[in-house]
Amino acid sequence: MWKYLAAAAIATALAGQSQAEALECGYINERGKIVIAPKYKSAGSFAANGLAAVEINGKLAFINARDEIVIKPTKFNITESRPITGFAAHDLAPVQENGKYGYINGKGETVIAPKYEDAESFAANDLAIIVDNGKKGAINVKGEIVIPAKYDFIGEFNDIGTAMVVENKKWGIINSQGKILVTPQYEQIGNFAVNGLALIKDHGKYGYINGQSETVIAPKYEGANSFSANGLAGVQENGKWGVINEKDEIIIAPKFDGITTFSVNGVAAIMETRKSGVRWGIINDKNEVVAAPKYGMIGDFSAEGLATVINFADRHHGIINEKGKIVIAPRFQWIGDFSTNGFAIAKRDWKYGVIHINGETVVPPKFQKMSDFAINGLAAFCNLRP
């Protein structure tokens, strides 16, 4: 929901984001055991190829889970304004050399020469976003330009291979071959949903278009969400939010002060405004109340049916399920994503620790910074140097 995106956004903790602090970083496993002693100034998450980026004497290096240096800290620089980036798809990692970005492979060999002002990791669709002459484009793993660097913004490609772009302050949609599907012409646009409709903003109002750029629902709403998998979307009319279907039929009359997108199981968080402040609850797509509005905030539900819930009084974070049951009582300042084994990073008293989905505190909050757990079950942590 664009209008309430800031309220629902949950930040991700990443190790090594601030170079101004004198940090020493290492790695722990999901039970809190230190596997790699803290000795690096900054540290990234382990990638699928078993390597993690670390900083040694101001240079970028890569280690394995046995703390062996696989790629030595020779010539690749650390940029203080951005976290260090490791390997992603196709065993390629962006690196900076002499102020320009290129890519190396898992052996440390330069595969794409450093020539860009900035470069992101390769995604599963074989593309990486690059910046050239202040504009964004995309290259393939061979270094060939697939999308010319002419956009001010390129969003993440979705499962059907389309992404939002901004050109000359107007929003449109392209595919992974760089073909323009929707000419940049709107004040704002959402990516295509599973039903093939994209949310647009035109002349201050929200509506929907199809893949042929044809208007399906005219821009007439004050606010709107993208369509969910159940074919429903929240819309705002006369200051209140309700729910419509793909035919623009009212399914739930506008009566809420906010609503999130529906989860895969058909529930959404709704907001009420009271004199004492806003309260969030949960409804299903049959307009039945699952949890009465009493929380300070409820985020979007994950595929596992869990969402962040925030107490109104103390702003503490916990976890709630789609049935409205509190899974983890709100007592943290922040909770990260849970791993496949049920572990997550949690922040309390300005320190990071580890919790389990059953509510158990596995590692008491004691670290200055932490990353989410990687596929190998290790998470980076950092503390201030003694």
Task: Report on the architecture of this protein.
The chain is mainly beta and 386 residues long. It has one helix spanning 5-8; strands at residues 23-29, 34-40, 43-46, 52-56, 59-63, 69-71, 93-97, 100-104, 110-116, 118-119, 128-132, 135-139, 145-151, 153-154, 162-167, 170-175, 180-186, 188-189, 198-202, 205-209, 215-221, 223-224, 232-237, 240-245, 250-256, 258-259, 267-274, 277-284, 289-295, 297-298, 306-310, 317-321, 326-332, 334-335, 343-348, 351-356, 361-367, 369-370, 378-384. The strands form ten sheets. It has a four-stranded antiparallel β-sheet with strand order 2-1-39-38, with no helix packed on it. A hairpin with a 5-residue loop joins β3 (43-46) and β4 (52-56). The chain is flat. It starts with a helix and ends with a strand. The model is unreliable at 1-19 (pLDDT under 50).
